[in-house]
């Protein structure tokens, strides 16, 4: 076959240029760690990587939602803890005041203290989260759930969140935990105690002690529920973290490079470029008759 | 005496012939780097001896050429031009619609992620603002993608028009070369005609033939005479009055032929295929996805209540029709300016109810796009994947055509390329022959001189 010097030089130049491009590609892959950067680099791998990225994005937001739910559980627990302590203190006072040695004036003093505690508990029952939502209002979160008379104005709807890809979970407690829906009505019980103390009625005071104990247990049980829910959310969150690690691996497998392969490609491309340069130099020398 | 004078003529003829060889070798050497130049040669023919000794006659110069190879080159030019345009245009489109960051898929995922987060705390103003921001990002992703497609269409039409002008210029070059060759068969003009014909094939995928009269005739694919001997038709890019897309008209006098759909090869063929297939498909799929997203999300949002108890707002401006939805995709102004208008509660269930937001979140997993076969994210991935597949496929086809062209370039070089070593050898050969002829003439001259002196 007849080959001219011009053609030889052109071919050598094209080869060198091609090898230089390969070195550049291999170098880019090595530096970025990305093998598939756009759909045309491999549609299936790109799609798989993109799906993994989307799932990761959603999982992170689920993580935020779960963290927020857990925070809300913690705030609710702190409020109920305060209410529980208040109820315990009221029970102590009521047990003391139930003693017939207490005079009417002393019982009126205890009643005043219980009234103050009731006010504190009412404030705690109307605790708002950092987003301004009333924690115990159910889904009526923009209205204080307990009025001054202690009547519950919220509802029993607990919040649902998408905790994982396959699971929508329900969490939290509502103000019903302080009403007859779950035992006794806490604020009615407190009102009854205050009334019996003010009425200096020892029998009535003693009669209310049972409801008060129920209220204390009711709050304690509710806090136990919150603890269980919090533990469940922690478990979900741990699973989510593991899932995200697996998603990152999936994404890496789909679009990332194998470092060993990439280094080998780079070394091969570099060697090929050196060879192409050497050949080109020889060809030019031959063409120029040196 | 007359015999010796005849020998002088013979010697002079030999000198002329060898000098022609020197001239051709020099011309070949001078054009070693001239694109499209075909090396030339002279043919030396011996004259019949009358009565005893003949001389040499020079024929040519002629080009080293092969019509079959030229035909294969033009066919290859047409395919290479087609895939060159397709691959560049598709790669640019891909870069426009599927950036690594901020693409449509990521924007849709971020919107649903925001809704998912908001569902955990539906009254949180910061989370509401975040969702509005994500909705705006989604709208921007749709409008940006639609803009990239639209811009790509405009650029394609501009390129088609510009290429049509270039094709017309080349066609007139071929016609001019035909006219010149009818008078004088200059190999350089034939080279230029071949180059112009190859340029035309690359641009418009035209087919050329050289008839027995030595004239090149060029037709556009599917018929339509572009160059007929010394005449060439006009090729004009004309915007379609309905779509605005560039059409290609072949005009010959009063005859106008719309050849748009017949041009399947060359760069213009590639541009037309890109515009009418890849771009149209991408645009249709994008609009359908935008329409599905807007209408499905709005249907849920409209029936949910905002914290103030009001209902009936769309989250996105409701599209009236599929076509053009992506370009006009936008967040309802009332919501864009007041995140508290986001509605995520069942009516009457309380401001903190999140069932509407959960319904919106659930949409991400439902096959409500792609004619009810895919999720929004999957449909967006499919749409961008289709563009990527087209880019990969045309890139591969272009590389194949480049390889074919390289093979043909090798064949062309073997036939028509100038080798400096060969030309140096030829030059030396003709130079020595010329010197011999000079010496021969000198000898005959001495003989004549002797005869004349001694008569």
Report the average pLDDT across residues of chain A: 94
Distance between the first and last residues' Cα of chain A: 23 Å
Can you list the strand order of the major beta sheet of chain A? Answer: 1-2
> Could you state the oligomeric state of the chains shown?
heterodimer
Anisotropy-based shape of chain A: rod-shaped
Notes on the structure:
The complex is a heterodimer of chains A (290) and B (455). Chain A has 290 residues and is mostly helical. Chain A is built from six helices and two strands, in the order αααββααα. Chain A is rod-shaped, with a radius of gyration of 37 Å. By secondary structure, chain B is of the alpha+beta class. In chain B, 61% of the residues lie in helices and 11% in strands. Chain B has ten helices and eleven strands. In chain B, the strands form four sheets. In chain B, strands 3-4-5-6 form a four-stranded antiparallel sheet. A three-stranded antiparallel sheet of chain B has the order 7-8-9. The longest helix of chain B has 59 residues. Chain B is rod-shaped, with a radius of gyration of 37 Å. Chains A and B meet through α1, α2 and β1 of A and α2, α3, α4, α8 and α9 of B.
